[in-house]
Each structure stands twice: as C-alpha cells, then as structure tokens.
Amino acid sequence: MTRRPLDAVLYEPAGAGRKRRAANRRALQAARTNGRRSEQDQPQSDPLTAGAPRTSAPYSANRRLPLLVDPHRATTRVLRVAYPFLAEGGLGSDGTYIGSDVFSGGSFVYDPWVLYQARVITNPNLLLAGVIGSGKSSTAKALITRSIALGHKAYVPCDPKGEWSSVSEAFGGAAIKLGPGLPTRLNPLDAGTRPSAVPVGEWQRVVRSRRRALLGTLAESTLGRPLSAIEHTCLDLSLDSVTTSAEPTIPDVVVALFEPDADRAAAVGTSVRILTTEGREVSHAIRRMVHGDLAGMFDGPSTTQFDASLPMVTLDSSWIGAGGNDLALRLTLACASSWMEAAVSDPAGGQRFIVYDEGWRVMRDPALLRRMQEQWKLSRAWGVANVLIVHRLSDLAAVGDLGSEARALAEGLLADCSTRIMLRQEPDQLARTATLLGLTDVEIATIAKLPKGRALWRLPNRSFVVQLVRHAREAELFDTDARM
Ligand SMILES: Nc1ncnc2c1ncn2[C@@H]1O[C@H](COP(=O)(O)OP(=O)(O)OP(=O)(O)O)[C@@H](O)[C@H]1O
Ligand SMILES: [Mg+2]
Questions:
Q1: Which intervals of the chain are annotated as region Disordered (predicted)?
Q2: Lowest CB count within 10 Å: 114, 137, 224, 357, which one?
Q3: CB-based contacts of 91: which residues, under 8 Å, 6+ apart?
Q4: Average pLDDT over residues 381-385
Q5: The ligand 1 atom nearest the CA atom of 478
Q6: Which ligand 1 atom is at minimum distance from the Cα of 134?
Q7: Is residue 120 in some structural domain?
Q8: CATH number of the domain to which 472 belongs
Q9: Residues 77 and 206 placed together within one structural domain of the fold
Q10: Ligand 2 centre and the CA of 389: distance in Å?
C-alpha cells in the first residue's frame, strides 16, 4: 500500500473532488485495518519492551487521530520524545475532587469504592505517610469531608491529638471525648443494634466472638505476650458467665475471672483452684480497665450511643496517652474500635472510612495489629476503607524484629493498602520507601522534595503527583498550626 502524507488524510484540501475524497477514505480505512492486523500480530511477551504499552499509544487511545505509523512498542524514554504533549488521563471524574494533577494540570478525583469497582485497585484501604507537618491529616480530612457529599461516612477511632473533633462537628457529626475524669463512658461489650438481615442466633455468635476478641486483645496488650491455653480458657469461661446478663460490662468479667464458676470449670475438666492460680495474671490485666489508669472510661454501661446515621463519629483520645503512655492509648483504641465495630459490621451501613490518625503510635502491639489486620481483610465485605496515617514506612518495620509476628502483620497492612499516598519523606527514608513500594528513580526524586500538601498518589501500576487544593474555609478548619 502506498502511504499518503498525514495532513492529506487529516485535512481534505479545499476544493478537492469526489475522487480525491473517496481516495482519502480508502487510505484511512486501509490504515485502520493495517493497525488492527498488526495489533493481532503482536508477540505476547517481549522481554526487551516489557511494561511498554501493547500498541502505539496515540493510535489505540484515540482512534479519531489516524496517525499513519505502524503500531509499535517502545519504552517511555523513547515515547516521551516521539509523542510529546500527551498526558495521563487521570482516574476519571467519578469521585471526590482532591486537587490538581501536577503533571497534566487536570483535576485529580479519587473514590476508593469507584476505583475498586473499576478494578483499578484491589482493595479500598489507604496508607498515608509523610514527615511531620507535611499535610497528611489535611489530605485525609479533605478526602473524607468532601466524600460526605457523596453519601460516604467516616469513623475516627484513633485521634490522639483530638484534631478531628472540630472537623466532625462542622459537618454535623459527633465527637466523643474520652479521658480520665471526663463524663463519657463507653461499654466495649455493648452488643450494638442487630442488623435486620442478620438472624438472632448468628448475631449472638458475632457479638460473643467480638467480645471474646476484645478481652483477648486487652489481656495480651497489657501483659505484652501471647496468652497461654489455660488463660484463654479463663477468658472463655468468664465471658460465658457474664453473657447471661442483658448488658454485661468489664467489671462483671473481672469478678468472673477472680471468682470462676465451679460448674463451668468442671465442665471443661478443670477446677476453680487451677483457674484462679493459672488465670491470675490475665485477671489482673483486665482489672486494669476497671481500677487502673483507665478507670471510669470503659467500666460501666455506655453513657452515649453510637449513632451510625451521622456522617462522622470521632473519638478524641487526646486526654489519654499524654506523656507517651502508648499502652493506655492502645487499650483505648481496642475498646473504642470494638464499640464501633457493631455499627461498622452492618452490611447495610453504607460506604465508610475508618481513620487511624497517628497510626504509628498504636502499631507497636501485635495484639492490636492482629485486630487491625482482621478489619483490613474484612474491608471489602463491610464496605469499609481503612485509612492508616504514619510518618514513614519504617514505622511499620519498627514494630518488631525481622521475622517477628508484629513485623509480618505490619507489613501485611501495607500490602493490603492498594492506595499509598506519599508526602515528603526524609532523605534517609527514601531507599526503604522505594524498596517497599517499588518506586522508580523519578518517583523517589519527586517525594524527596514535595512541598506541603503535595503527594505522590501511588495506585497499582499508576502514580500521580497531586497538589491538594483547599477552600479557605477548609484551610481554617484543618489548621493544626494555630499554636505555632
Ligand atoms: N496544601 C496545603 N497548603 C498549605 N498549607 C497546608 C496544606 N496542607 C496542609 N497545610 C497546613 O500544614 C499544617 C500541617 O498539616 P497537617 O496537620 O495536615 O500535617 P500532618 O502531616 O498531619 O502533621 P503531623 O505529622 O504533625 O500530624 C496545617 O496547619 C495545615 O493547615
Ligand atoms: Mg497529622
């Protein structure tokens, strides 16, 4: 076939006759057929050009532009010169506006549920990392508060700085303040409201397993070690003794641990004496929730109800864990997230974000990490997107030695976050970040010098540099520099 000049095909010369136009149409048709045939002839895998687009990008991306070149593959190094001024098309317009795509200048719009349905991401969870003051919380607040307009909700069980309360109140949500001496008390053993679709028997099993998991987490976190088999039995039997009451509380469990039921002990082939001796440490660990530094917060019936219809519910834990008491903070998170779980696990509850701000402070605990990992795994079933905010990815490594359970759990959380939002990182963190996320040299160079509020949004096989754009009202509401 003889090739015609490109402009002769694209623009028909003025005054050209019918024959000329017919010839142009035939040339176009031939070019298309030729392109399609060549696409089919493409080898399935070519190690030299692996990763490059399968066909000539401009031709397949936009068939209105019939460039008369043979379909071919090349690396981005070549393509950027051969096809300048072509930019990434973005993630579409379905979702929440975040800001501008720095390279294309277009709007950057993101919605984890939309992208999951479009199979762009494999799970809805997000990880945000960046140096202090780089804009992690602001980015999360912008994404979440703007998503409320799309019907999404947000729960913030971990807010050690109390900076989400004003945001929640501004959007019609609730901010629950927890701390020693404060009037609010939550009963982490609350059953919650049974979703109408779940049968009574199944709901009772769900509630029991949630309560049992919480008691195990509290005991393991306080003791700092996994429980022995007999200690697990102690917890099981004490929980069985208290679930006969309509509204069991942690003090009821403590009583049942110190005074085991003789019949229940005999039924599992042990005795009251063995249970009280072997279960001594676990009894004292749970007692801390009633008489220790957390007294008055989780040791009675709830003084407030979880209103799942609100757009946002946050738990301000800034009164706890002051002076670096991270254990108190972790126990609080365990109780608060168990209390929230009743609402979160309702499949009819809609699409919700669950935010762990300053997540690194609660991640040094294998028991809590195990709980978080279970929630991460259930995110798709519950319609929940978990948002974990840390300073650097080495926070995940700092939870334990190489090969330890805690380390594997923390790195598992990273693997279960399809969207990683990297704000500026310190130079000494770049190599580790690049290895963990599989970043290119260009991406590493980018995150080393990102200004405030600008982030590398890394999704599977795609990445974007996005500048967060805030309204003046948002800038005021998200400000955490007031005291500076
Ligand atoms: N795009 C932006 N432009 C200008 N200022 C911003 C931008 N994003 C955030 N800021 C401001 O920077 C300050 C720090 O932001 P933010 O609290 O979100 O940071 P952070 O990374 O969460 O900090 P920390 O590590 O202390 O939690 C805030 O006062 C915020 O208003
Ligand atoms: Mg922050």
A1: 1-64
A2: 224
A3: 108, 109, 110, 115, 120, 459, 464
A4: 86
A5: 31
A6: 21
A7: yes
A8: 3.40.50.300
A9: no
A10: 8
Based on the domain organization, do 316 and 434 belong to the same domain?
yes
Q: Are residues 345 and 281 in the same domain?
A: no
Ligand 2 center from residue 461 Cα (angstroms): 28
Examine the domain organization and report whether 77 and 102 are in the same domain.
Answer: no
* Residue 63 reports pLDDT greater than 60: no
Q: Give residues with Cβ within 8 angstroms of 353, minimum separation 6.
A: 143, 144, 147, 152, 153, 154, 155, 384, 385, 386, 387
Question: If pLDDT is split at 50, 70 and 90, which confidence band does 56 have?
Answer: very low
**Which amino acid residue places its CA nearest to atom 25 of ligand 1?**
132
Q: Mean of the pLDDT values across residues 139-143?
A: 95
Q: In terms of residues, how long is the chain?
A: 484
- Which residues have a beta carbon within 5 Å of ligand 2, which is an ion? 137
User: In which domain, by residue range, is 382 found?
Assistant: 96-176+312-322+341-477
Q: Which atom of ligand 1 is nearest to the CA of 454?
A: 1
Asked if 28 and 141 sit in the same domain, the reply is: no
Cβ atoms of 162 and 316 closer than 8 Å: yes
282 & 193 share domain: yes
Euclidean distance between CA atoms 398 and 445, whole angstroms = 24
Does 328 map to a domain? no
388 and 369: one domain? yes
Number of domains in the chain: 3
Give me the sign of the Cα torsion angle 394, 164, 355, 407.
positive
Say how many Å lie between the CA of residue 132 and the centre of ligand 2. Answer: 7
pLDDT at 424 over 60: yes
Q: How far is the C-alpha of 102 from the C-alpha of 318, rounded, in Å?
A: 36
- Residue 145 in any domain: the answer is yes
CA distance 179 to 297: 7
374 vs 483 pLDDT, higher one: 374
Report how far residue 424's alpha carbon sits from residue 84's, in angstroms, rounded to the nearest whole number.
28
